[in-house]
Specification:
- 77% of the residues lie in helices and 0% in strands.
- The chain is an all-alpha fold.
- It has a domain of 141 residues: Orthogonal Bundle (Tetracycline Repressor, domain 2).
- α7 packs across α9.
- The longest helix has 28 residues.
Amino acid sequence: MPKQTFLNLPDDKQKRILECAIDEFAEKGYRAASISCIVKTAGIAKGSFYQYFEDKEDLYGFVVESAIVRRKLKISSDESVKLETLNLTQFIRVLFRAMMHEFLDQPKLLKIGTDLIRDQSAPVQKRIYGKYEHLQQNYFQAFIFHGKNQGTIDPNVDEDVLGNMLTGIGFMIGNFAAVHGYENLTEEYIDDIVDKIEYIFINGIYRSSAE
């Protein structure tokens, strides 16, 4: 995360550095992104960069947190006010539709997010996922607990395991966009995925031995 010297900068300079970093990571991905290119575009000395961040990974983590994770959490928080009117799968549908529209309007952030998902071998990915894993799960926790209290979700269901499973849906949707093109990511695709998830929730995956 940024050092205090970065946080002490005027807002417009912080924003300029962040935007230049987003441009570089979106265009080249984490591995090929260059600090030299970022500082040149931002109009700052390379020595100044290391007064603001430890290294490229530190800057990348800041981009992911400030530009992607916080947006997801805000969307989740906004939709969670509908707790009394939506069940879990309805919430999943609304949440992923909202995230789709948000990030299609911000294609650079979508590219950074899908690059993060796809680069499974990158150490930076593991560290970022480890740091924010609990935030990913928290998108769904309120609805899981609510469903248990209402008797619509089995009380024996493990909240953390189900939260991780649902988080995986987001990775799957992001990977679909990366492989098939962002323009092919539609509400219809998301609805189809949620319909299939709901079928599994209602019917399970094992067939009765009596059938």
